[in-house]
Specification:
Elements: H1 9-23, H2 30-37, H3 41-48, H4 51-65, H5 80-95, H6 104-112, H7 117-143, H8 153-173, H9 177-189
Helix pairs in contact: 1-2, 1-4, 4-7, 5-7, 5-8, 5-9, 6-7, 7-8, 8-9
């Protein structure tokens, strides 16, 4: 009969995700993970695999609970520009929340670049989900005449995603609320 886990794997994964998010992959040791999760090394390995496997699981967890997970695509009555404005506002607030964490996906892309195919693929899927959510919003805005219809909704979604990712990278070295809000305003003004 398999042994019952003495810890909550989802809660431990959330704590590991938070640690990777705040410190990055390279700066996070197994000992840091043991301390943050309250799970001993053998149980961490037995449940999640090695540090790399745990990191990939944390990235997947983040994409299900990140900024875009809170994007209410079902509220079709809200003007699309208002939804996008709220998204930028939450993004800027996250960049300036004092932790300096920004977005785990953005941080991961900056830390890893293209050197780890599994990480690249996980980040690529996360960005595709974000792009698809933005594409749906843009299409809705175009159908209602809120966004110019002559431009490709996919191209606009990619532009918005690029602006959001760039804003987060810039915020790492220049966490100036006014500057970040100017980027958001200028981005939204092009729609």
């Amino acid at each position: 009969m398999p042994r019952t886990k003495a810890f909550d794997p989802d809660a431990a994964l959330d704590r590991a995700m938070e640690l990777f998010w705040s410190q990055g992959y390279e700066a996070t040791s197994i000992e840091d993970l043991v301390d943050a999760t309250g799970v001993n090394r053998a149980s961490l390995y037995g449940t999640y695999g090695d540090k790399h496997a745990l990191f990939l699981k944390a990235l997947e967890r983040y994409t299900g609970a990140g900024l875009f997970a809170s994007l209410d695509l079902e509220d079709e009555d809200k003007p699309v520009r208002e939804v996008l404005r709220g998204l930028f506002d939450r993004l800027i607030a996250r960049c300036l929340d004092g932790r300096g964490a920004g977005c785990l996906i953005t941080n991961t892309i900056c830390e890893f670049g293209a050197r780890d195919e599994a990480v690249v693929e996980t980040a690529r899927r996360a960005l595709a989900r974000m792009e698809n959510a933005l594409d749906l919003l843009v299409r809705r805005g175009q159908a209602r005449g809120e966004i110019a219809a002559e431009d490709s909704p996919r191209a606009i979604a990619r532009y918005l995603l690029n602006a959001m990712q760039g804003l987060q990278v810039v915020a790492k070295v220049n966490p100036d609320r006014r500057a970040l809000q100017q980027v958001a305003e200028r981005t939204l003004a092009t729609l």
